[in-house]
Structures are given as C-alpha cells and as structure tokens.
Amino acid sequence: MLGVCGVIFAASVFALLSGAELKNASDFNVESVRADKLASQQLPAATGTSFLLLFTDPNRAYPDPQFQQAVESALAPLANDHRVKGIATPYNATPAQAAVMVSSDRHSVFSVINLSIDFSSARQQYNDLRHEVESSTLRISSEGDVPLSADFDTILGSNLSTAEKVSLPLALIFLVIVFGTGVAALLCLGVGIFAVVGGIGAAYVMAHFFNVSTYAANVVTLVGLGIAIDYSLFIVTRYREELARDGDTARALSVTMATAGRAIAFSGMTVALGLAGLLFFTGTSLVSMGAAGAAVVAISVLYGLTLLPALLAILGPRVNRWRVPVLQPKPFGQGAWHRIATWVMRRPWLVLIPTAAVLIAAGTPFLGINLASTDVGQLPPTAESRIGSELLQAQFPEAGQNTIEVVLQFAHGSPLDAQNVATAYAFTRTLAQMPGIVSLKSYVNLDSSSGVSDYRALYQQPRDSLPAAVQDEVHRSVGSSIAVIDAATPYLTTSDQAHQLVRTIRAHDSVPGATALVTGNTAFDLDFVAYMVGRVPVVIGFVVVATVAVLLLLLRSVALPLKAILMNGLSLSAAFGALVWIFQDGNLSGFLGFTPGPIDPTIPVLLFCIVFGLSMDYEVFLLTRMQEEWRRTHDNRLAVANGLERSGRLVTGAAVIMACVFLAFALASVVTIKSLGLGMAIAIVADATLVRALVVPAIMRLLGPANWWAPRWLLRGLPEAEEPAAAA
Asked: Which of 91, 191, 526, 641 has its CA 20 to 30 A from that of 173?
C-alpha cells in the first residue's frame, strides 16, 4: 500500500511540475459577455493586447523637454522588444490624443504599450516587460488588464507561500498539543502535505482540459491542508484510543477503520457535495475551484484510508513516541468536556436559547450586504496597477472615466448604410439625453456640428476615401453588422449610479432595425452579480438535499440530518455577518490592512459551499460517537454526554488547527483571499465551540430517543453500520 501511495505522490509532483497554465476566464450567458464576444469577433482592434504606463515627475511638468527626455529614455528598451508592436505617447500622438494623455496638473503623462502577443502570454511575460522600463527621476505605475492580472498572480503566489510558511508550523504545534506526542503530530502533518500536493497536481492536470482559476491553488491549499489534517487527526486519535485498551495493533487498526475510517469516508462525501455546489455556476472560475476542491477532498480521504493505516500498522505502539507529559489528556470522565457535557444535559433550554440568539444576531449585518465583482481595490494599496488605476482616475478626466459600451447590432445591411447610419445617429441622441452620460464616442459622433444628413452623405463615399480620422474611428468601432458606441460617465464602475445608468440604457434597447447590447465593466458587474444570485437557490437546494441523503445513510435517523442542516445555518450566520461587518462596513480595516468596499459575490458562495461541508465534517464525527454510545446503552442522555466527552476535545482541537490554517490565509494582501480565510476561520470556531459543544447536545437532549428514529420503510435496503466489536 505504501508503494501505491508513493506512486500517486510521485504522479502528483510530476503533474505539479508539468501541468498547464492556471488562468481566470469567464464565459457565461449574460448580455455583457454576449456583447463583448460580438465586438471581439467583428472588431480586430478589440482583441489587441495593450497596457498603460504612467510617468510622474513632481518637479517638472509637460511639455518640459527634460520630462520628455526622461519618459522616452525609460521607454527606449521596449521599443526594441519584439513583443512590442507600438508605443503611443503624448509626444508622438495627434494634439487631440496628446491632450487625453496628460494629467490635469501636467506632472503626469501616460503611454500606451501595444503588444504583438495575446493576453495570456502578455500576462505571463508582463513582469519581464515592466522590468525593462526604469527611471531615476520618474515615478512609474501601470494600468490595464494585463498589469492588473499580473499583479494578482504575483501577489497571490506570494500570499500562498506566506500562508503555507505560517500555517504548517502552527498546525504542528497544535497537533502536538492535541496528541501530546510528536510522532502522531508529524504523521498527521505529513498526510496533510501529501494531500495538498496531490490536490494542486490535480488542478494542473485539469488545466489541460478546461480553464482552471489561479485561485484554485489557494482553495486547494485552504481546504486540503485543513481537511487532510482533520481526517488524520480523527484516525490517529481513535487508533491510539483503541490501542490503549489492550495493545493489540491489529484489533486497534480494525476497529479504527470500521468507525473513524467509515466516518471520514462519509464526511468526505459531505464536503465534496458542498464543493460540488460550485459546479452550478457554469462559465465562471468557481467551477474549477469546486472541481479542484473536490479532488483534494477525495485525495485526503484516499490517503486517510490507505497511507495512514499502512503507516500506523508499521509504527504500532511507536505512534506514542516523543511524549509531552504536561499535554497528556485526563482519563475518561475527569476532563473539561465531561463537565461541559454534564452541565449541558442538566439545563438544555438555558444553553440553547441564548446561544442560538447570539449566533443569529451575529448574522444580521448580512441583511445589508452590497455585492460587486472584484476590482483593483482587492489589491493592496502598494500594488503598482492599483496606484496607476487610481492616478488615472484622479488626474486624467477623459481617460480615467468609466466607459459603458453599447454594441448596436443591425438586423440588415452594413452599419454604413444610410438607414443604419440614421438609426445609430438617433440612438446616440437618445443616449446623450440620459443623466450621467458626459460624452459619446462613435462613428456618428465625430463632430458636434454634423447632423444625420451629413453622416449619411459622408458614408456614401468609399471607405478608403474617407478622411484619416474618420477611417480610424470606423476601423475601431464598426464591424460587418455592428457599431460600438462608447458612453463616458463619471460614475464609478461598481456604484449604484453606474448600475442604474446601465439599466436605463437597457430599457431603451428597442431600436428600429437594430438591437442594443450593453457591455463594459459596469454592465459585467451588474450581470455577474445577477447571475450569481440567480443560481444560489438551486445550489442551496442541491447541497442540502444531497447532504441529508448522505447523513440519512450514515446515521439511519430522520431528525439528526435535519438538525445538522439547521446547525450549519447557525455557523454560517456568524460567518456571513462577520464578512459584511468587517469587509464591507470597514470595521477592523486598519488593523487587518485593507480597503473596505462591496463584497465580491463569489465570496459568500465559496464560504457557503466550503464551510457547509467542513461544518458537517465535525457533525459526522460528533454524531457517530454518540451513535456508538446509543447502540451500546440505548440511553439518549448518556449517549449524548459520553459522545460529546469522547469527541469534544478532538473536534475542538481539529477546529483550532483548521482555524489556524484559515487565519494564515487571512494574512493575505488580496482582499478576496483575506475575507475568505477570515470568514472560514470564524465559521469553524463558532461551529466547533458554540454550536457543536452547546447547541447540538442541548437539542439532542430535548429530542430524546427521537434522535435515533426513522421509519422502517425508509431504512429498508440501507446497510446496517458494522459494530466495532464485530469489525475487530
């Protein structure tokens, strides 16, 4: 078995080193995406790759010759780079273009770097290109999708490395505290590392067949490290418990796999089902995160059922080596969990009502959530692309404005036909009257003094005989059946005003002989949020129904699966409320080092799908121990108390370890990862302490024998769980 696991690990390392590139891509069926595709198909200029470099000289202003010389010297290496096909600056542009490229205070200018490589290659090679541009007198920043994506990739990689360096030592320390022995702790940590390598390798293999998000590696590490250590913790703890009875390694291992082994198999199913909910968001990066997350869970279960038992069989009693005497657990019936269990059993209502009220109240900030897709604000303030974006918006009124693109698709003929020119002209006049639109750019908005008859006459001429400026605009914005109209607005991309402006434009999409499709960053943000929210009910329904089915199979009870769903709701309530209170409302923003703002819609979805499964992980181990006691005693009160005592310390220890892993990701400088890590840590801590330690036993005490009831017709055909003694 060790040989097979070794081959699997070697294959994982090979896949990690030779896998395809991870990249973020979206292709879902909403208006903004359809419009963007249409423009990309008909307008070759729309597919070009470019980015901006901004140069700031606090001591000199445009057009100072020394300022010009410094800019041109800095750009000179790029001019000789085969990946660069053109560089536009205020010094080689037309007067009209140059005016746009100079800041309001005239201490900054920008250049447009046009590349001959596609976006994917530009994203990978951007840092090499950027390092060619240096200056001793100028402050240089960047703007555009290429530097933004490259910064996300670089910072995410750095965050992942930092999280691993922090989480692994912390996990080892807490494993030693839980076990009281060094060998058992190292065993669990080693399995966790094996699982993460396998999960990331699986993600890179998947990238050969479909787009896998760059965030998938973070999700795999986040989930894989925590879940694999948890499963190993449960297996090793039960093995040591059984080994302490009579020292029989074979019997201890057999009972362990029949109890804890069975439990982690079912727990793995619940976690994988939670992650499978992400597969419903087709066309988004969440699909790859769900697939990669489910893969690392499967690998964690595989190693937990194969590699770990094989190592335990070899180690035998030596799993208890390197003891830490002060950390040894007290005998059964004398520890803190025994006292907690007894106290909860005596006063269930006194525990249940205030605890549930606190968790529900903690979730109330979520009622005011404001959703918006990820933007440059997710990066730390020191990121060069964020600095450039903020400078462009603040100092370059025309270039920094938010642009809403309207793709006008004509039913018949060319956009240059007389009737279609008149249609486009009339539509732009409608747009110009809308509050919030400050300027329009299109092939029928070249001159404010020209009317519809002038444009109809102009485009009756052959295209190659048109004035140069007109040819440029036609080449930029006119396709075989479409014309693109750029509407500039001062409203920020994700603001309510910008969203309302897009809705207003779409309300006027009935154009005689044409269809108006709205795209651009604001339209995409609006569509993406609506797309995500629209699929949430289906995802919740699938995850809940599938989880209930698995728990019914495991626990052979009607009440316990339904109770487990409600308990997960309480844990998620605390996490969702904290997410809004911290990251949207800005509480603790100074301490945690981020800029508050709207919540990316992927975060609540990821939090639900991941935490729902992980919370069920603890529920499975808690309830299976209670179930064992119930079968042994048929005394509900004793079963709940003994089950809580036997598993409480373990569940809490596992939660602390997993929370440490998640909090290590909360140190990330990318707000998306920071919020996900902190949200998951809060959910897990609340789940393992308030929910599993107090609310669960209180409800089970009140339900009594009803906990273990199910109608015979429902149980017919379900396999009976194997008793530990029979397994031995």
From this structure: 641
- Label residue 322 exposed, middle or buried (CB < 10 Å: 0-12, 13-18, 19+): middle
What architecture is domain 1-24+180-328?
A: Up-down Bundle (1.20)
Buried b (16+ CB within 10 A) or exposed e, 293-306: bbbbbbbbbbbbbe
Spatial CA neighbour of 665 closest among 122, 59, 98, 221: 221
Give the pLDDT score at 727: 40
Distance CA 589, CA 595 (A): 7
Tell me the CA end-to-end span of the chain in Å, nearest whole number.
21
pLDDT at residue 335 in the model: 57
Which residue type is seen at 192?
A: G
Assign 326 a pLDDT band (cuts: 50, 70, 90).
very low
195-210 pLDDT, tens digit per residue, is 888 888 888 888 878 7
Give the CATH number of domain 47-149; options: 3.40.50.720, 3.30.70.1430, 3.40.50.20, 3.30.420.40. Answer: 3.30.70.1430
DSSP letter (8 states) at residue 484: E
From CA 521, how far away is CA 524, in angstroms rounded?
5
Beta-sheet strands, E only, within 282-413: 402-410
Residue 438 has which token pair?
């400050």
Greatest pairwise CA separation for the chain in angstroms = 99
Name the H helices within 417-495: 418-432, 452-458, 468-477
Name the strand (E) or helix (H) holding 501. helix 496-507
